[in-house]
Amino acid sequence: LYAAEFLLWVSASLLFIRLDNRDLIFYFAYISPFFRVWEFLIGACLALVYLDHPPRWLQQRRNRDLLLAASLLMVVVVIIGTEYHLVGNLSYYVAFTPWFALIILGLASGPTMLTGWLSSGPMVLLGEASYSLYLIHSTPAFIVRLVYGKEAAPGWLVALVAIFCVVASVATLK
To answer: What Cα–Cα distance (Å) separates residue 98 from each residue in 35, 51, 121, 136?
Structure first.
């Protein structure tokens, strides 16, 4: 399973680097199960390792906080690399997934510097509405993409659509 995970990650990385067609990239990044299954596999492998052999170094809160800080920093590096075209097409998922997996590992291992914030009322409510948010966001995002095509939508519109999606997803809970 670990070998299959690694091979899938390498093949996805190599193919994403070589793609130039934005529509194909969108298809592979958001729709194709071949490129999305590796996210599931890395999560399953990480869970198996964690459950079978919990890392001792994650027993200390300081180490969990360092793991979170380093992983969040790497997410920022990927975002900046994407902005300046340093990462290429990897930015869609391949470059983010390992860092998000480590963030989840750090958060699942015990209390961290983010525990208070993540257990606050608004964050718990957002967590409860997350599946609705997942279902709702695709239609407004598709409409914006249809209107603006390959050009980036204005920031105010993206913020407005995001707020609408969050409010609509929370409203579906009641």
So the answer is: 14, 18, 28, 26
